[in-house]
Amino acid sequence: MKKFTALILTLMMLVSAAAFAETVTDTLTQNTEEVIIIDMSAPTFEVGDDSAEYKVEGASGWNVVTAYVKIAAGDDVLFNGPVTITSDNLSVAEFTLAAIYEVGCGQEGLEAGFVTSIGDYVSGTDANGNYVYWGYSVNGKYVPHTCTDMKVLEGYYISWDFMTYNADAGFDTAAVLPCGYPAPFEVGEDEAEYAVEGASGWNVAKINMKITAGEDVLFNGVVTLTSDSLTVAEATLGAVYEVGCGQEGLEAGFVTSIGDYVAGPDADGNYVYWANAVNGIYLPFACNEFRLLDDDYVQWDFVAYSAQ
Predict the structure, then answer these.
(1) Which pTM value belongs to this model?
(2) CATH number of 2-21+183-305
Protein backbone atom coordinates (compact mmCIF):
# COMPACT_ATOMS: atom_id res chain seq x y z
CA MET A 1 0.00 0.00 0.00
CA LYS A 2 2.88 2.37 0.84
CA LYS A 3 4.46 1.71 -2.58
CA PHE A 4 1.15 2.43 -4.30
CA THR A 5 0.74 5.67 -2.34
CA ALA A 6 4.29 6.73 -3.10
CA LEU A 7 3.74 6.20 -6.83
CA ILE A 8 0.60 8.35 -6.74
CA LEU A 9 2.46 11.11 -4.88
CA THR A 10 5.27 10.97 -7.46
CA LEU A 11 2.79 11.33 -10.29
CA MET A 12 1.19 14.35 -8.63
CA MET A 13 4.60 15.94 -8.17
CA LEU A 14 5.34 15.49 -11.88
CA VAL A 15 2.01 17.05 -12.82
CA SER A 16 2.74 20.01 -10.51
CA ALA A 17 6.26 20.43 -11.86
CA ALA A 18 4.99 20.66 -15.42
CA ALA A 19 2.52 23.37 -14.45
CA PHE A 20 5.26 25.21 -12.58
CA ALA A 21 7.31 25.91 -15.71
CA GLU A 22 5.38 28.98 -16.89
CA THR A 23 6.79 32.45 -16.02
CA VAL A 24 5.20 35.82 -15.39
CA THR A 25 6.15 39.40 -14.61
CA ASP A 26 4.25 42.11 -12.78
CA THR A 27 4.36 45.80 -13.62
CA LEU A 28 4.22 48.24 -10.73
CA THR A 29 3.76 51.95 -11.33
CA GLN A 30 5.54 53.95 -8.65
CA ASN A 31 4.50 57.30 -10.10
CA THR A 32 3.62 58.82 -13.46
CA GLU A 33 7.27 59.12 -14.46
CA GLU A 34 8.68 55.79 -13.33
CA VAL A 35 7.54 52.24 -14.09
CA ILE A 36 9.31 49.35 -12.37
CA ILE A 37 9.12 45.84 -13.81
CA ILE A 38 9.41 43.12 -11.17
CA ASP A 39 9.99 39.52 -12.22
CA MET A 40 7.67 37.87 -9.71
CA SER A 41 9.45 34.52 -10.16
CA ALA A 42 12.72 36.04 -8.90
CA PRO A 43 13.89 35.15 -5.37
CA THR A 44 12.26 37.10 -2.55
CA PHE A 45 15.73 37.75 -1.13
CA GLU A 46 19.26 36.81 -2.08
CA VAL A 47 19.95 33.53 -0.31
CA GLY A 48 23.09 33.44 1.84
CA ASP A 49 25.59 30.70 2.65
CA ASP A 50 24.16 29.56 5.99
CA SER A 51 22.44 26.18 6.09
CA ALA A 52 20.63 23.99 8.59
CA GLU A 53 18.99 20.58 8.82
CA TYR A 54 16.40 19.57 11.38
CA LYS A 55 14.22 16.53 11.96
CA VAL A 56 11.17 17.04 14.12
CA GLU A 57 10.89 14.37 16.79
CA GLY A 58 8.39 11.70 15.77
CA ALA A 59 8.21 12.79 12.11
CA SER A 60 7.12 10.01 9.74
CA GLY A 61 9.83 10.86 7.23
CA TRP A 62 7.44 11.32 4.30
CA ASN A 63 7.92 15.10 4.09
CA VAL A 64 11.46 16.40 3.62
CA VAL A 65 11.40 20.01 2.38
CA THR A 66 13.94 22.77 1.83
CA ALA A 67 12.93 26.42 2.30
CA TYR A 68 15.00 29.59 2.43
CA VAL A 69 15.16 31.42 5.76
CA LYS A 70 16.48 34.88 6.53
CA ILE A 71 16.49 36.36 10.04
CA ALA A 72 17.68 39.95 10.29
CA ALA A 73 17.61 42.89 12.68
CA GLY A 74 18.56 45.79 10.46
CA ASP A 75 22.06 45.12 9.13
CA ASP A 76 22.60 42.32 11.64
CA VAL A 77 21.81 39.13 9.71
CA LEU A 78 21.48 36.29 12.21
CA PHE A 79 20.83 33.61 9.57
CA ASN A 80 20.44 33.52 5.80
CA GLY A 81 20.36 30.31 3.82
CA PRO A 82 18.54 27.06 3.01
CA VAL A 83 16.93 25.03 5.79
CA THR A 84 15.95 21.40 5.22
CA ILE A 85 13.55 19.85 7.68
CA THR A 86 11.84 16.51 8.07
CA SER A 87 8.39 17.14 9.48
CA ASP A 88 4.76 16.16 9.10
CA ASN A 89 3.74 19.78 9.71
CA LEU A 90 6.33 21.92 7.84
CA SER A 91 5.45 25.06 9.78
CA VAL A 92 7.27 28.39 9.63
CA ALA A 93 8.06 27.91 13.32
CA GLU A 94 9.87 24.62 12.65
CA PHE A 95 12.01 26.07 9.85
CA THR A 96 12.84 29.08 12.01
CA LEU A 97 13.74 26.90 14.98
CA ALA A 98 16.12 24.91 12.78
CA ALA A 99 17.92 28.12 11.75
CA ILE A 100 18.12 29.34 15.35
CA TYR A 101 19.41 25.99 16.61
CA GLU A 102 22.12 26.16 13.94
CA VAL A 103 23.44 29.58 15.01
CA GLY A 104 22.65 29.09 18.70
CA CYS A 105 21.18 32.55 19.26
CA GLY A 106 18.13 31.57 21.30
CA GLN A 107 14.50 32.64 21.02
CA GLU A 108 11.23 32.98 22.90
CA GLY A 109 7.72 32.42 21.62
CA LEU A 110 8.26 30.33 18.46
CA GLU A 111 6.66 27.19 19.87
CA ALA A 112 3.59 29.24 20.88
CA GLY A 113 3.39 30.96 17.49
CA PHE A 114 4.14 34.51 18.68
CA VAL A 115 7.83 35.45 18.72
CA THR A 116 8.94 37.86 21.44
CA SER A 117 12.70 37.53 21.02
CA ILE A 118 15.39 36.14 18.73
CA GLY A 119 18.97 36.48 19.86
CA ASP A 120 19.49 39.79 21.67
CA TYR A 121 16.52 41.45 19.97
CA VAL A 122 13.47 41.59 22.23
CA SER A 123 10.03 42.99 21.44
CA GLY A 124 9.07 46.05 23.47
CA THR A 125 9.74 49.77 23.68
CA ASP A 126 13.11 50.99 22.41
CA ALA A 127 15.16 54.02 23.58
CA ASN A 128 13.22 56.31 21.23
CA GLY A 129 9.85 55.30 22.59
CA ASN A 130 8.95 53.19 19.55
CA TYR A 131 7.56 49.68 19.77
CA VAL A 132 9.90 47.12 18.17
CA TYR A 133 8.82 43.59 17.29
CA TRP A 134 9.58 40.54 15.16
CA GLY A 135 7.47 40.23 12.01
CA TYR A 136 7.69 37.68 9.24
CA SER A 137 6.68 37.25 5.63
CA VAL A 138 6.42 34.24 3.33
CA ASN A 139 7.32 34.63 -0.34
CA GLY A 140 7.40 38.39 0.18
CA LYS A 141 3.79 38.45 1.40
CA TYR A 142 2.18 39.54 4.65
CA VAL A 143 1.08 36.53 6.70
CA PRO A 144 -2.12 36.81 8.76
CA HIS A 145 -1.39 33.54 10.59
CA THR A 146 0.78 32.53 13.52
CA CYS A 147 4.10 30.96 12.62
CA THR A 148 2.94 27.62 14.04
CA ASP A 149 -0.18 27.63 11.82
CA MET A 150 1.50 28.72 8.59
CA LYS A 151 2.87 25.78 6.60
CA VAL A 152 5.38 26.13 3.76
CA LEU A 153 6.25 24.12 0.66
CA GLU A 154 9.43 23.30 -1.21
CA GLY A 155 11.36 26.42 -2.23
CA TYR A 156 9.33 28.89 -0.15
CA TYR A 157 11.02 32.02 1.27
CA ILE A 158 10.65 32.88 4.97
CA SER A 159 11.91 36.30 6.08
CA TRP A 160 11.99 37.49 9.70
CA ASP A 161 12.62 41.19 10.35
CA PHE A 162 12.99 43.11 13.61
CA MET A 163 10.75 46.08 12.85
CA THR A 164 9.60 49.33 14.39
CA TYR A 165 6.09 50.57 15.04
CA ASN A 166 5.45 54.25 15.61
CA ALA A 167 2.05 55.51 16.74
CA ASP A 168 2.28 58.46 14.35
CA ALA A 169 3.69 56.65 11.34
CA GLY A 170 2.04 53.23 11.79
CA PHE A 171 3.70 49.94 10.98
CA ASP A 172 6.73 49.94 8.70
CA THR A 173 5.71 48.58 5.31
CA ALA A 174 8.02 46.89 2.84
CA ALA A 175 7.88 47.37 -0.91
CA VAL A 176 6.15 44.68 -2.94
CA LEU A 177 8.61 41.83 -3.32
CA PRO A 178 8.87 39.06 -5.91
CA CYS A 179 7.29 35.87 -4.59
CA GLY A 180 9.98 33.46 -5.74
CA TYR A 181 7.84 31.36 -8.08
CA PRO A 182 6.34 31.82 -11.57
CA ALA A 183 2.58 31.78 -12.10
CA PRO A 184 1.67 28.11 -12.68
CA PHE A 185 -1.32 28.90 -14.90
CA GLU A 186 -2.95 31.78 -16.75
CA VAL A 187 -5.81 33.07 -14.64
CA GLY A 188 -9.21 33.10 -16.35
CA GLU A 189 -12.19 35.42 -15.98
CA ASP A 190 -14.32 33.48 -13.49
CA GLU A 191 -15.01 35.24 -10.20
CA ALA A 192 -16.37 34.10 -6.87
CA GLU A 193 -16.77 35.55 -3.39
CA TYR A 194 -17.03 33.39 -0.33
CA ALA A 195 -17.22 34.37 3.34
CA VAL A 196 -16.81 31.54 5.83
CA GLU A 197 -19.59 31.55 8.41
CA GLY A 198 -18.44 33.20 11.62
CA ALA A 199 -15.33 34.77 10.05
CA SER A 200 -14.09 37.86 11.89
CA GLY A 201 -13.62 39.78 8.63
CA TRP A 202 -9.98 40.61 9.32
CA ASN A 203 -8.56 38.23 6.69
CA VAL A 204 -9.62 38.73 3.08
CA ALA A 205 -7.50 37.22 0.30
CA LYS A 206 -7.81 36.92 -3.46
CA ILE A 207 -6.89 33.39 -4.54
CA ASN A 208 -6.19 32.36 -8.13
CA MET A 209 -8.10 29.11 -8.66
CA LYS A 210 -8.23 26.61 -11.53
CA ILE A 211 -10.21 23.36 -11.47
CA THR A 212 -9.91 21.13 -14.54
CA ALA A 213 -10.70 17.61 -15.66
CA GLY A 214 -8.77 17.23 -18.90
CA GLU A 215 -10.10 19.89 -21.26
CA ASP A 216 -13.17 20.50 -19.10
CA VAL A 217 -12.43 23.66 -17.13
CA LEU A 218 -14.88 23.84 -14.25
CA PHE A 219 -13.49 27.09 -12.85
CA ASN A 220 -10.61 29.40 -13.74
CA GLY A 221 -10.42 32.77 -12.09
CA VAL A 222 -10.21 34.57 -8.76
CA VAL A 223 -11.90 33.62 -5.50
CA THR A 224 -12.20 36.40 -2.93
CA LEU A 225 -12.14 34.58 0.37
CA THR A 226 -13.05 36.00 3.77
CA SER A 227 -11.86 33.59 6.43
CA ASP A 228 -9.78 33.45 9.60
CA SER A 229 -7.87 30.42 8.28
CA LEU A 230 -7.81 30.95 4.48
CA THR A 231 -7.45 27.26 3.66
CA VAL A 232 -7.26 25.59 0.26
CA ALA A 233 -10.54 23.82 1.04
CA GLU A 234 -12.35 27.09 1.77
CA ALA A 235 -11.11 28.79 -1.40
CA THR A 236 -12.09 25.73 -3.45
CA LEU A 237 -15.55 25.67 -1.90
CA GLY A 238 -15.98 29.29 -3.01
CA ALA A 239 -15.27 28.30 -6.62
CA VAL A 240 -17.45 25.17 -6.46
CA TYR A 241 -20.39 27.08 -4.95
CA GLU A 242 -20.08 29.72 -7.67
CA VAL A 243 -20.40 27.25 -10.56
CA GLY A 244 -22.80 24.96 -8.68
CA CYS A 245 -21.07 21.74 -9.65
CA GLY A 246 -21.07 20.03 -6.25
CA GLN A 247 -18.29 18.18 -4.44
CA GLU A 248 -17.54 15.58 -1.81
CA GLY A 249 -14.69 15.55 0.65
CA LEU A 250 -13.51 19.16 0.73
CA GLU A 251 -14.65 19.79 4.27
CA ALA A 252 -12.84 16.65 5.43
CA GLY A 253 -9.71 17.59 3.49
CA PHE A 254 -9.68 14.71 1.00
CA VAL A 255 -11.62 15.31 -2.21
CA THR A 256 -13.41 12.34 -3.77
CA SER A 257 -15.49 14.24 -6.33
CA ILE A 258 -15.94 17.63 -7.96
CA GLY A 259 -18.79 17.96 -10.39
CA ASP A 260 -19.30 14.72 -12.33
CA TYR A 261 -15.72 13.58 -11.82
CA VAL A 262 -15.47 10.95 -9.09
CA ALA A 263 -12.30 9.31 -7.82
CA GLY A 264 -12.00 5.56 -8.43
CA PRO A 265 -11.38 3.07 -11.28
CA ASP A 266 -12.38 4.35 -14.72
CA ALA A 267 -13.62 2.37 -17.73
CA ASP A 268 -10.05 1.54 -18.75
CA GLY A 269 -9.10 0.18 -15.36
CA ASN A 270 -7.05 3.21 -14.36
CA TYR A 271 -7.38 4.87 -10.98
CA VAL A 272 -8.52 8.49 -11.38
CA TYR A 273 -8.38 11.07 -8.61
CA TRP A 274 -8.28 14.79 -7.82
CA ALA A 275 -4.73 16.09 -7.33
CA ASN A 276 -3.97 19.60 -6.17
CA ALA A 277 -1.02 21.96 -6.00
CA VAL A 278 -0.38 25.39 -4.47
CA ASN A 279 1.82 27.83 -6.38
CA GLY A 280 2.76 24.99 -8.71
CA ILE A 281 4.03 22.78 -5.89
CA TYR A 282 2.57 19.41 -4.87
CA LEU A 283 0.63 19.75 -1.61
CA PRO A 284 1.52 17.05 0.96
CA PHE A 285 -1.33 18.02 3.29
CA ALA A 286 -5.07 17.68 3.49
CA CYS A 287 -6.63 20.66 1.72
CA ASN A 288 -8.35 21.83 4.92
CA GLU A 289 -4.97 22.11 6.69
CA PHE A 290 -2.95 24.31 4.34
CA ARG A 291 -3.34 28.07 4.70
CA LEU A 292 -3.10 30.45 1.76
CA LEU A 293 -1.82 33.98 1.27
CA ASP A 294 -3.13 36.76 -0.95
CA ASP A 295 -2.55 36.07 -4.67
CA ASP A 296 -1.59 32.42 -4.16
CA TYR A 297 -2.39 29.91 -6.90
CA VAL A 298 -4.47 26.78 -6.30
CA GLN A 299 -4.80 24.18 -9.04
CA TRP A 300 -6.95 21.05 -9.05
CA ASP A 301 -6.52 18.43 -11.78
CA PHE A 302 -8.48 15.23 -12.33
CA VAL A 303 -5.69 12.84 -13.25
CA ALA A 304 -5.26 9.12 -13.91
CA TYR A 305 -2.89 6.64 -12.35
CA SER A 306 -2.18 3.35 -14.07
CA ALA A 307 -0.25 0.43 -12.58
CA GLN A 308 1.11 -0.35 -16.06
Answers:
(1) 0.84
(2) 2.170.130.30
